[in-house]
Amino acid sequence: MPYNKRFDGRKFDELREISAEVGVIPNADGSAKFKIGKTIAIAAVYGPRVLHPRFLQDPTKGVLRCNYNMMSFSGSGERVRPGPSRRSKEISHITEKALEPVLDLSEFPSAVVDVYIELLQTDAGTRCAGITAAALALADAGFPMKDLISAVAVGRIEDKVVLDVSKEEEDYEGGMADIPIAMLPRTGEITLLQMDGLVTLNELKEVLKSAKKACEQIYKVQKDALRARYLK
Amino acid sequence: MSNGIVTSHIINLIDKDSRLDGRKLDQFRDIKIEYGVSAKSAEGSALVKIGKTEVVAGIKMEVGEPYPDRLDEGTIIANVELLPLSSGEFESGPPTIKSIELARSVVDRGLRESKAIDFKKLTIKKGEKVWTILIDAYSINDDGNLADAIGLATLAAIKDAKFPKYDEKEEKIDYKEKTKKGIELKELPIPVTVLKIKNKFILDPTLDEENAMGARLTVTTVEDGRICALQKGGISPLTPEDTEKIIELATKKGKELRKLFK
Predict the structure, then answer these.
(1) Which residue, A107, A180, A191, B95, could crosslink A98 as a Cys pair with Cβ 3.0–4.6 Å?
(2) Which secondary-structure segment (H or E) carries A94?
(3) Which fold has domain B4-261?
């Protein structure tokens, strides 16, 4: 069965509506809100500050610690129990790995930089939205960064590459590949790459090309949000 | 973070009937309520800002068995999460005593004791199936008076809520489909927190003012002025005269705040 028309009517290479805002949490050292379609992620940065317990400290540089969490009413079905789950722990971990390559924490030995990501509403693409918001929050906090990080989930359904996978597409009956990708938008270097599904190498090449274009669009929205706050 | 100089300055100011941000002692900061902030996911949701303090609350509804001693009643479960995202003072981990106190004394007790929700109306089939209303409030930014913000946010979220469709044959909820039926609120239990600093009473304290407090009393009142919940905090005691004065202040302010929902 060919997949000729997307459930929500978007073009195959079209993102959902995106918007970003920085400085949304006055208490935090840096913060941002990122919306993609109906998925809403809020990120706050606290630090550098003292890292406890001490054995986690790195005397050569600061440690980035991310925490991804879905608010208990933000899921599509029953209430999500508060507190960490296996899923949220894994996403927290890959979020750290996605952001570390652009961040220089060598000035902050033995310290921690905490990034808290909360999902207020979810409709697919939450880890990518969280990473995109977190990168903005880190920039808002003023950390030295090589580049921002932009992230998007690209899918493959039948013979089509679909940009910014929706919930209906995630649940596509005929099977699909869901590939969240984060990258340095200026160089195209990849810092997050995961996949559920089956693809050929050629299909993956197409997916990566499509992700690069999408990340450039997201990057623009991120930069505009930072400009709106700092270049009034 | 408490700061000795700020604290003593605040105390001196309040003693002279003034405050750091220029408000009157019984004056609230600007209040903003936004409904449906998580409309795609939650059955009901709302965001409340009081000055720089921000809270979101969401409602999920589930169907389960009733308690054995209340076969024809549904129930509510209230939970408050003080997110480390909202303040450098909050840490990740199991609920702290502060978050448990807020959930129990502000949200749960206010709704239960005021009989705001008719639990009997949450029955689907007596003894077998009843609705449970799950209320979760999250701090987004803590600049003091989380208690009142959480109270308003949970009421707003309940007012925003619509029951999801329930298929009695399949015994399944279709969360994608909301019905037009809302949760009937027979009362609006409004919590108002009053702080005693020196011999003065202030409303809607900022974080710095909370750090300067002697005693605190959260008074939840209903429309006709009756009190449905009380919770004292802080290290100083309150005299019966103090308590009366506080309840007067809270009842008056509660009447004003109730208008936000009309």
Answers:
(1) A191
(2) helix A86-99
(3) Ribosomal Protein S5; domain 2 (3.30.230)
* A35 found inside a domain: yes
The pTM (predicted TM-score) of the whole model is: 0.96
Distance CA(A112)–CA(A230), nearest Å, equals 25
Question: How far is A183 from A188, CA to CA, in rounded Å?
Answer: 6
Number of domains in chain A: 1
Rounded Cα–Cα distance for residues B258 and B253 (Å): 9
Token look-up 């033995």 returns A110
pLDDT at B160: 98
For A74, the token pair is 């933000």
Q: Residue A205 has what pLDDT?
A: 96
Distances, alpha carbon A4 to alpha carbons A81, A157, A159, A166, B34, in Å = 38, 10, 9, 15, 39
Range(s) of the domain holding residue A116 = 18-230
- Point out the residue among A49, A116, A123 whose CB comes nearest to the CB of B85: A116
Provide the shortest C-alpha distance from residue A49 to chain B (in Å).
10
When scoring B1, B43, B49, B85 by the number of chain A Cβ atoms within 10 A, the one with the most, hence best to mutate, is B85
8 Å CB contact of A73 and B39 = no
Mean per-residue pLDDT for B110-117?
Answer: 96
Sign of the dihedral defined by the CA atoms of residues B149, B152, B155, B160, in that order:
negative
Q: How many whole angstroms separate alpha carbon B155 and alpha carbon B190? A: 8
Report which DSSP code applies to A24.
-
Helix runs in chain B, H state only: 4-15, 97-101, 109-113, 146-160, 207-210, 240-258
**A10 Cβ neighbours under 8 A, 6+ residues apart:** A16, A164, A166
How far A231 CA lies from chain B's nearest CA (Å)? 23
ipTM of the complex: 0.94
Closest chain B CA to residue A44: B85
**A108 occurs within a structural domain:** yes
Instruction: Please name every residue paired with A74 in a beta bridge, in sequence order, or none if there are none.
Output: none
- Selection from A82, A94, A143, A53 nearest residue B83 by Cα: A82
- Position A232 scores a pLDDT of 74
Q: How many residues does chain B have?
A: 262
Q: Which residue, A120, A137, A129, is CA-closest to A43?
A: A137
Question: Any idea what the CATH number is for the domain that residue A125 is in?
Answer: 3.30.230.70
Query: For residue A72, what is the nearest residue in chain B, using CA coordinates?
Result: B136
A2 within a domain of the structure (yes/no): no
